[in-house]
Amino acid sequence: MTVKLSKAEKKVKYDKKLCRMLDEYSKVLIALADNVGSNQLQNIRKGLRGDSIVLMGKNTLIRRCIKVHAEKSGNQAYLSLLPLLVGNVGLIFTKGDLKEVSEEVAKYKVGAPARVGLVAPIDVVVPPGNTGLDPSQTSFFQVLNIPTKINKGTVEIITPVELIKKGDKVGSSEAALLAKLGIRPFSYGLVVQSVYEDGSVFSPEVLDLTEDDLIEKFSAGLSMVTSLSLAISYPTLAAAPHMFINAYKNVLAVAIATDYTYPQAEKVKEYLKDPTKFAVSAAPAASVTPAASTAPAAAVEEKKEEPAEESDEDMGFSLFD
Fold this sequence. Notes:
- The protein is an alpha+beta fold and about 325 residues long.
- The chain has 3 domains: about 10-110 and about 190-210, Alpha-Beta Plaits (2-Layer Sandwich), CATH 3.30.70.1730; about 125-185, Alpha-Beta Complex (Molybdopterin biosynthesis moea protein, domain 2); about 210-280, no CATH class.
- The protein has helices at about 5-25, 40-50, 60-75, 100-105, 140-145, 170-180, 210-230, 240-255, 265-275, 290-315; strands spanning about 25-30, 50-55, 90-95, 110, 125, 130, 150, 155, 160-165, 185-190, 190-195, 200.
- A 5-stranded antiparallel beta sheet has the order 2-3-1-11-12, with helices on both faces. The chain has a 3-stranded antiparallel beta sheet with strand order 6-8-7.
- The protein is flat, with a radius of gyration of 41 Å.
- Keywords: Ribonucleoprotein, Ribosomal protein.
- One of its GO terms (cellular component) is cytosolic large ribosomal subunit.
Protein backbone atom coordinates (compact mmCIF):
# COMPACT_ATOMS: atom_id res chain seq x y z
CA MET A 1 0.00 0.00 0.00
CA THR A 2 1.51 3.29 -1.13
CA VAL A 3 1.58 6.22 1.23
CA LYS A 4 0.64 9.60 -0.21
CA LEU A 5 3.11 12.34 0.58
CA SER A 6 2.11 15.89 1.40
CA LYS A 7 3.37 18.81 -0.67
CA ALA A 8 5.96 19.68 1.97
CA GLU A 9 7.25 16.11 2.03
CA LYS A 10 7.43 16.01 -1.75
CA LYS A 11 9.47 19.22 -1.77
CA VAL A 12 11.89 17.79 0.81
CA LYS A 13 12.27 14.61 -1.23
CA TYR A 14 12.81 16.61 -4.42
CA ASP A 15 15.38 18.82 -2.68
CA LYS A 16 17.38 15.78 -1.51
CA LYS A 17 17.31 14.29 -5.01
CA LEU A 18 18.48 17.51 -6.67
CA CYS A 19 21.23 18.10 -4.09
CA ARG A 20 22.49 14.55 -4.60
CA MET A 21 22.68 15.15 -8.36
CA LEU A 22 24.51 18.44 -7.85
CA ASP A 23 27.12 16.56 -5.83
CA GLU A 24 27.48 13.63 -8.25
CA TYR A 25 27.34 15.37 -11.64
CA SER A 26 29.48 18.16 -13.08
CA LYS A 27 27.79 18.37 -16.51
CA VAL A 28 24.23 19.52 -17.18
CA LEU A 29 22.21 20.16 -20.33
CA ILE A 30 19.42 22.74 -20.00
CA ALA A 31 16.65 21.72 -22.39
CA LEU A 32 13.40 23.42 -23.44
CA ALA A 33 10.42 21.08 -23.02
CA ASP A 34 7.58 22.94 -24.76
CA ASN A 35 4.90 20.67 -26.26
CA VAL A 36 6.65 17.52 -25.00
CA GLY A 37 4.18 14.88 -23.76
CA SER A 38 4.62 12.55 -20.81
CA ASN A 39 5.02 9.45 -22.99
CA GLN A 40 7.63 11.19 -25.12
CA LEU A 41 9.50 12.30 -22.01
CA GLN A 42 9.40 8.74 -20.68
CA ASN A 43 10.96 7.46 -23.91
CA ILE A 44 13.72 10.06 -23.61
CA ARG A 45 14.44 8.91 -20.06
CA LYS A 46 14.69 5.31 -21.25
CA GLY A 47 17.04 6.26 -24.08
CA LEU A 48 19.35 8.18 -21.72
CA ARG A 49 19.24 5.62 -18.94
CA GLY A 50 22.69 4.77 -17.65
CA ASP A 51 24.85 7.88 -17.59
CA SER A 52 22.14 10.56 -17.74
CA ILE A 53 19.10 11.59 -15.70
CA VAL A 54 16.32 13.96 -16.79
CA LEU A 55 14.96 16.11 -13.99
CA MET A 56 11.86 18.26 -14.42
CA GLY A 57 10.32 20.59 -11.88
CA LYS A 58 9.21 24.10 -11.05
CA ASN A 59 11.84 26.72 -11.72
CA THR A 60 11.28 28.45 -8.37
CA LEU A 61 11.84 25.18 -6.50
CA ILE A 62 14.97 24.35 -8.50
CA ARG A 63 16.40 27.84 -7.91
CA ARG A 64 15.78 27.57 -4.17
CA CYS A 65 17.40 24.14 -3.97
CA ILE A 66 20.49 25.32 -5.87
CA LYS A 67 20.90 28.42 -3.68
CA VAL A 68 20.55 26.45 -0.43
CA HIS A 69 22.94 23.76 -1.66
CA ALA A 70 25.51 26.39 -2.68
CA GLU A 71 25.38 27.95 0.79
CA LYS A 72 25.73 24.61 2.58
CA SER A 73 28.42 23.09 0.38
CA GLY A 74 30.31 26.28 -0.49
CA ASN A 75 30.23 25.31 -4.18
CA GLN A 76 29.15 28.48 -5.97
CA ALA A 77 29.67 27.08 -9.49
CA TYR A 78 26.08 25.87 -9.93
CA LEU A 79 24.75 29.38 -9.30
CA SER A 80 25.49 30.09 -12.98
CA LEU A 81 22.49 27.85 -13.78
CA LEU A 82 20.01 30.25 -12.15
CA PRO A 83 19.69 32.72 -15.10
CA LEU A 84 19.00 29.78 -17.43
CA LEU A 85 15.95 28.54 -15.53
CA VAL A 86 13.39 30.47 -17.56
CA GLY A 87 10.32 28.97 -19.19
CA ASN A 88 9.42 25.31 -19.43
CA VAL A 89 12.91 23.84 -19.07
CA GLY A 90 14.38 20.66 -17.67
CA LEU A 91 17.82 19.61 -16.47
CA ILE A 92 19.68 16.65 -17.96
CA PHE A 93 22.47 15.59 -15.59
CA THR A 94 25.06 13.43 -17.33
CA LYS A 95 28.43 11.75 -16.86
CA GLY A 96 28.77 10.87 -20.54
CA ASP A 97 29.97 12.79 -23.55
CA LEU A 98 27.96 15.98 -23.92
CA LYS A 99 27.78 15.82 -27.70
CA GLU A 100 26.58 12.19 -27.70
CA VAL A 101 23.93 12.94 -25.08
CA SER A 102 22.74 15.99 -27.04
CA GLU A 103 22.47 13.91 -30.23
CA GLU A 104 20.57 11.19 -28.37
CA VAL A 105 18.07 13.73 -27.03
CA ALA A 106 17.52 15.13 -30.54
CA LYS A 107 16.43 11.69 -31.80
CA TYR A 108 13.23 11.69 -29.78
CA LYS A 109 11.09 14.08 -31.76
CA VAL A 110 7.41 13.45 -32.41
CA GLY A 111 5.31 14.92 -35.21
CA ALA A 112 2.47 17.16 -34.10
CA PRO A 113 -0.49 18.80 -35.85
CA ALA A 114 -0.78 22.55 -36.28
CA ARG A 115 -3.03 23.70 -33.47
CA VAL A 116 -4.86 27.03 -33.51
CA GLY A 117 -2.90 29.84 -31.85
CA LEU A 118 0.38 27.94 -31.91
CA VAL A 119 3.46 29.87 -33.07
CA ALA A 120 4.94 28.09 -36.08
CA PRO A 121 8.55 27.01 -35.45
CA ILE A 122 9.13 26.47 -39.21
CA ASP A 123 7.63 27.48 -42.55
CA VAL A 124 4.75 25.26 -43.63
CA VAL A 125 4.43 24.60 -47.36
CA VAL A 126 1.55 22.58 -48.80
CA PRO A 127 2.91 20.48 -51.69
CA PRO A 128 1.06 20.16 -55.01
CA GLY A 129 -0.84 16.99 -55.77
CA ASN A 130 -4.14 15.21 -55.32
CA THR A 131 -5.75 15.88 -51.96
CA GLY A 132 -8.33 13.10 -52.15
CA LEU A 133 -11.08 15.59 -51.17
CA ASP A 134 -14.34 15.83 -53.09
CA PRO A 135 -15.14 18.91 -55.22
CA SER A 136 -17.43 20.33 -52.51
CA GLN A 137 -14.27 21.38 -50.62
CA THR A 138 -13.14 23.74 -53.40
CA SER A 139 -14.51 26.82 -51.63
CA PHE A 140 -12.40 25.97 -48.60
CA PHE A 141 -9.24 26.20 -50.73
CA GLN A 142 -10.42 29.42 -52.35
CA VAL A 143 -10.63 31.13 -48.95
CA LEU A 144 -6.93 30.42 -48.45
CA ASN A 145 -6.05 31.48 -52.03
CA ILE A 146 -4.82 28.01 -52.94
CA PRO A 147 -5.05 27.31 -56.70
CA THR A 148 -6.80 23.99 -57.38
CA LYS A 149 -8.44 22.01 -60.15
CA ILE A 150 -10.81 19.06 -60.32
CA ASN A 151 -9.08 15.90 -61.46
CA LYS A 152 -10.94 12.57 -61.61
CA GLY A 153 -13.56 13.73 -59.16
CA THR A 154 -11.14 15.03 -56.51
CA VAL A 155 -9.50 18.36 -55.70
CA GLU A 156 -5.89 18.70 -56.83
CA ILE A 157 -3.52 21.46 -55.70
CA ILE A 158 -1.72 22.92 -58.72
CA THR A 159 1.34 24.66 -57.23
CA PRO A 160 3.18 24.60 -53.87
CA VAL A 161 1.66 27.05 -51.39
CA GLU A 162 3.44 28.63 -48.40
CA LEU A 163 0.61 28.34 -45.93
CA ILE A 164 2.29 29.47 -42.69
CA LYS A 165 5.49 31.42 -42.13
CA LYS A 166 7.89 30.79 -39.29
CA GLY A 167 6.96 32.87 -36.25
CA ASP A 168 3.31 33.39 -37.31
CA LYS A 169 0.39 32.06 -35.29
CA VAL A 170 -1.59 29.23 -36.78
CA GLY A 171 -5.12 30.32 -37.74
CA SER A 172 -8.25 28.21 -37.62
CA SER A 173 -8.46 27.88 -41.42
CA GLU A 174 -4.83 26.79 -41.76
CA ALA A 175 -5.19 24.28 -38.92
CA ALA A 176 -8.40 22.85 -40.44
CA LEU A 177 -6.81 22.51 -43.89
CA LEU A 178 -3.71 20.73 -42.58
CA ALA A 179 -5.94 18.41 -40.57
CA LYS A 180 -8.01 17.59 -43.68
CA LEU A 181 -4.84 16.86 -45.66
CA GLY A 182 -3.41 14.76 -42.84
CA ILE A 183 -0.27 16.92 -42.59
CA ARG A 184 1.53 17.10 -39.23
CA PRO A 185 4.02 19.86 -40.04
CA PHE A 186 5.64 20.36 -36.65
CA SER A 187 7.86 18.11 -34.58
CA TYR A 188 8.60 18.58 -30.90
CA GLY A 189 11.11 17.24 -28.42
CA LEU A 190 13.61 18.38 -25.83
CA VAL A 191 15.69 21.19 -27.34
CA VAL A 192 19.07 21.79 -25.69
CA GLN A 193 19.47 25.52 -25.12
CA SER A 194 22.56 25.75 -22.91
CA VAL A 195 25.33 23.52 -21.63
CA TYR A 196 26.92 23.62 -18.18
CA GLU A 197 30.28 22.00 -17.44
CA ASP A 198 32.40 22.56 -14.33
CA GLY A 199 31.11 26.06 -13.72
CA SER A 200 31.16 27.19 -17.36
CA VAL A 201 28.03 27.82 -19.41
CA PHE A 202 28.14 27.82 -23.21
CA SER A 203 25.94 27.41 -26.27
CA PRO A 204 25.21 23.90 -27.58
CA GLU A 205 26.72 24.89 -30.95
CA VAL A 206 30.12 24.57 -29.27
CA LEU A 207 29.57 20.80 -29.09
CA ASP A 208 29.56 20.62 -32.90
CA LEU A 209 33.02 22.17 -33.23
CA THR A 210 35.69 19.84 -34.62
CA GLU A 211 39.47 19.97 -34.22
CA ASP A 212 39.74 21.60 -37.66
CA ASP A 213 37.32 24.34 -36.56
CA LEU A 214 39.38 24.98 -33.42
CA ILE A 215 42.62 25.12 -35.41
CA GLU A 216 41.04 27.56 -37.88
CA LYS A 217 39.78 29.85 -35.11
CA PHE A 218 43.13 29.69 -33.31
CA SER A 219 44.96 30.58 -36.52
CA ALA A 220 42.62 33.52 -37.13
CA GLY A 221 43.19 34.81 -33.60
CA LEU A 222 46.95 34.36 -33.93
CA SER A 223 46.92 36.30 -37.18
CA MET A 224 45.04 39.18 -35.55
CA VAL A 225 47.50 39.30 -32.64
CA THR A 226 50.43 39.30 -35.07
CA SER A 227 48.93 42.10 -37.18
CA LEU A 228 48.20 44.25 -34.12
CA SER A 229 51.68 43.70 -32.69
CA LEU A 230 53.33 44.70 -35.97
CA ALA A 231 51.09 47.75 -36.36
CA ILE A 232 51.96 49.18 -32.93
CA SER A 233 55.54 47.80 -32.84
CA TYR A 234 54.82 45.84 -29.68
CA PRO A 235 56.88 42.62 -29.47
CA THR A 236 54.98 39.40 -28.91
CA LEU A 237 55.84 35.75 -29.43
CA ALA A 238 53.60 35.63 -32.50
CA ALA A 239 55.10 38.75 -34.10
CA ALA A 240 58.77 38.12 -33.18
CA PRO A 241 59.66 36.09 -36.34
CA HIS A 242 58.17 38.79 -38.58
CA MET A 243 60.01 41.54 -36.68
CA PHE A 244 63.35 39.76 -37.07
CA ILE A 245 62.75 39.22 -40.79
CA ASN A 246 61.76 42.86 -41.33
CA ALA A 247 64.82 44.04 -39.38
CA TYR A 248 67.09 41.84 -41.47
CA LYS A 249 65.55 43.23 -44.65
CA ASN A 250 66.30 46.77 -43.47
CA VAL A 251 69.95 45.90 -42.64
CA LEU A 252 70.35 44.18 -46.01
CA ALA A 253 68.89 47.19 -47.82
CA VAL A 254 71.41 49.49 -46.07
CA ALA A 255 74.30 47.17 -47.00
CA ILE A 256 73.24 47.14 -50.66
CA ALA A 257 72.82 50.92 -50.81
CA THR A 258 76.21 51.63 -49.16
CA ASP A 259 79.72 50.23 -49.10
CA TYR A 260 79.09 48.50 -45.79
CA THR A 261 79.03 44.74 -46.19
CA TYR A 262 78.95 41.49 -44.25
CA PRO A 263 79.16 37.84 -45.38
CA GLN A 264 75.45 37.33 -45.90
CA ALA A 265 75.14 40.50 -47.96
CA GLU A 266 78.12 39.77 -50.25
CA LYS A 267 76.28 37.03 -52.10
CA VAL A 268 73.31 39.31 -52.75
CA LYS A 269 75.62 42.07 -54.01
CA GLU A 270 77.35 39.58 -56.28
CA TYR A 271 74.07 38.56 -57.85
CA LEU A 272 73.01 42.16 -58.31
CA LYS A 273 76.28 42.95 -60.12
CA ASP A 274 75.85 40.01 -62.49
CA PRO A 275 72.12 39.36 -63.11
CA THR A 276 72.93 36.40 -65.38
CA LYS A 277 73.55 34.36 -62.25
CA PHE A 278 69.84 34.50 -61.60
CA ALA A 279 69.22 32.47 -64.76
CA VAL A 280 68.19 28.90 -64.21
CA SER A 281 70.64 26.31 -65.56
CA ALA A 282 69.65 23.88 -68.30
CA ALA A 283 67.87 20.65 -67.57
CA PRO A 284 69.95 18.34 -65.31
CA ALA A 285 71.81 15.38 -66.75
CA ALA A 286 69.54 13.01 -64.85
CA SER A 287 66.69 14.02 -67.14
CA VAL A 288 68.45 12.69 -70.27
CA THR A 289 66.62 9.65 -71.64
CA PRO A 290 68.44 6.33 -72.18
CA ALA A 291 67.84 6.55 -75.96
CA ALA A 292 69.49 9.96 -76.11
CA SER A 293 72.49 8.77 -74.09
CA THR A 294 73.11 5.71 -76.29
CA ALA A 295 72.96 7.70 -79.55
CA PRO A 296 76.23 9.62 -78.99
CA ALA A 297 77.97 6.40 -77.97
CA ALA A 298 76.94 4.74 -81.23
CA ALA A 299 78.20 7.73 -83.20
CA VAL A 300 81.58 7.53 -81.47
CA GLU A 301 81.91 3.86 -82.37
CA GLU A 302 81.16 4.64 -86.01
CA LYS A 303 83.80 7.36 -86.00
CA LYS A 304 86.35 4.96 -84.55
CA GLU A 305 85.72 2.37 -87.30
CA GLU A 306 86.15 4.83 -90.20
CA PRO A 307 89.95 5.35 -89.85
CA ALA A 308 90.53 1.58 -90.03
CA GLU A 309 88.91 1.38 -93.51
CA GLU A 310 90.92 4.32 -94.79
CA SER A 311 94.19 2.75 -93.61
CA ASP A 312 93.50 -0.44 -95.62
CA GLU A 313 93.01 1.51 -98.85
CA ASP A 314 96.17 3.55 -98.31
CA MET A 315 98.30 0.40 -98.07
CA GLY A 316 97.01 -0.77 -101.46
CA PHE A 317 95.80 -4.16 -100.39
CA SER A 318 92.68 -5.72 -101.87
CA LEU A 319 90.61 -8.69 -100.87
CA PHE A 320 91.49 -10.56 -104.15
CA ASP A 321 95.17 -9.63 -104.30
